[in-house]
Amino acid sequence: MQRLVMIIPKIGNAQLLPLEFSTNLTTGRKEQIGPFRCYERLHNESIISDGVASVTRQIDSLYRLKFLSIVISDKEVYRIDMQYDNRNAVTQSKIYMKHLGVSKVRVQNYSYDEDGQLVEMVGRDHWKFHYDVNGNMVTMQYMGNKIDIQHVTGDRIVSFGETPYVLDGRGFVIQRGEERLVYNTKRQLTRAFRVGRYDIDYYYDGRGRLSVRKDNVGNVTQFFYADTEQPFSVTHIYNNADGRTITLMYDDRNYPMFILLNKESFYIATDHTGSPLLVYDVYGDVVKEIHRGPYGHVLFDSNPNFYLPVDFQGGLLDPMTGLIHFGDRVYDSLVGQWMTPGWDDILKSLPNPKRFHLYRFNENDPVNVNHGLKNKLDLKEWIHYQGINLDTLDLAGHAVYNRGSQLSNCVDFEPLFIDLPTVPLISGLTCSVQQKLLRFAQLTSVQKSKVKREQLFDSALPKISTHNVPFGKGITVSNINGKAIVRASARAEIIRKDVFSAVFNNCHILDLHLTFHGLDVFYLVKDNTRRVGDDLNQLQRLGNSAVNTTVHESKQEEVDGLPPSSQPHQVDVRIHSHHAILNIRYGTSPEKERQRLLRHAKRQAVSKRWSQERDIISSNQRGPLKWSEREKEQILSTGQASGYRGEYFHDVSLYPELADDPSNVFFHKNNDRHRKR
């Protein structure tokens, strides 16, 4: 098993402090983290110390934080006591601190509704929250001041009090008051600016981590991630303006605990979620105090000149925008939601309706993070909650034997309804060795069932859909070797079954799937026009309430040098259902129809791309393209700049779903080989 033993950082010509690490061979716990030593004094009490500061942490019988104490230079400067309810949720946190020789006590009490959403926090501040049935926060009350939050279809926020929010067609928040936001196609925030105030560019590495922040006054901040065991935790920060280098260290829970600013040492006190509250020097004096709302918005910062990049729950805070970066997503702590929809894990969220929300932060519970067992039958996870880290022990030899394999880390089963990729080829010897290693790593003598999953309530198919099926219940249309085959179950309507079988069976079905005004469009082809009349008679049997059928005499285009008059007659029949459009083209071949659709889709994509550039120029924004003043005038007056043509960035023959996507279009200048992207 490969474990991290040392980090030797070097930024430019500056050699930074080497950091050593060690792990207990029996329990897998950390024993050394840089200058800190980790001890287990009792079975439920541990100490982390570097000789100047000591952090004592005690847990209860369910491995929850009971209290945490920080002692610096032989004086206790910070302590937090926790209380929980029978649902494993935090009900009270009591913080003791010393500042300028004065002791302070801050008590915060939390209340939740039946869905586990935070509804009230009473303490130094008094907060109240109200949510609608979809889980959207509709009112926020702070110290008696009530703020209304409005949402539209799709749980998209449109206003926070008097501050308007604007979203684009992808559901990304692109404007927040006077602030404008720009994203790439990976939903990563690439630019945030406010005219006359600030202009910030963001850059990411190949793993989606924020790597560079560059502002309009010349500050360039670089973020480095040197810990291979916690690859998304920033360990070093470098700013070119003042040459300042920051080294961050985390405890065994991956909470920030120590910061080295050039050669000065500071200690970080966090709450139970890992959010920094206080920063102390080596004498135990407070150099920075941060006070936040329940959802992480900074209400008070005693020393904003002291830059602490790690903020709410370990995210990276931008001091100008107030937005918090978690990997490649951005979080708005003011409204308590993500700035971009989270489509990636939406299928995994189907078994838990509370998580079926694209913008909600931790199910509207910012107080309890990753608490409780995800699967009560997971023995490995239960052992982890007892303080033994099996991942670092690697009993099955995954990290050694399957080095570089993506499958080696797939210990937990994916939900059954998620389509899995094709099973990869594997040799018989490799399979045999893997099975023996897995049997050796089993923590029980009871053999797991080979036909039954431990996820007792896992469903084989998704049960949630916002749209109805396009053909009716029990009817499917499959693509078999390029031909449409209609199948129907016993519960399918007889008329629909007969009509769709007569119209669609054995016609060509294209592998091209586009959208039109939010509706899915499917394309089918018939070689000649003889069946147009018969098919229309069949479709009339469905009635206008079920589908709306329209007939279009197709306008011929010049293809392969042939004028339109010499081409065969073609007809389009479009079947409009409530949630889909089916287009049948008569009198052509599948390949010709596919090429025609791709040409049409490209014209649409290029037109949309020019419209985007015109909107950027008209709103005085700095877009990704550098146009001359003459070209800007042309785009505003005619909708495009002369001398440029739109081309695809990704080949649509390989990715046909990007055919009508304007983000897949770049502008190519006709008289040279330079690309404008």
TrEMBL record:
Residues 592-669 form the Tox-GHH domain. GO terms for biological process: motor neuron axon guidance. Transmembrane segments: none annotated. InterPro entries: TEN-like_YD-shell, Teneurin, Tox-GHH_dom. Signal peptide: none annotated. Residues 3-367 form the Teneurin-like YD-shell domain. Keywords: Disulfide bond, EGF-like domain, Repeat. This is Teneurin-a. It comes from Trichonephila clavata (Joro spider).
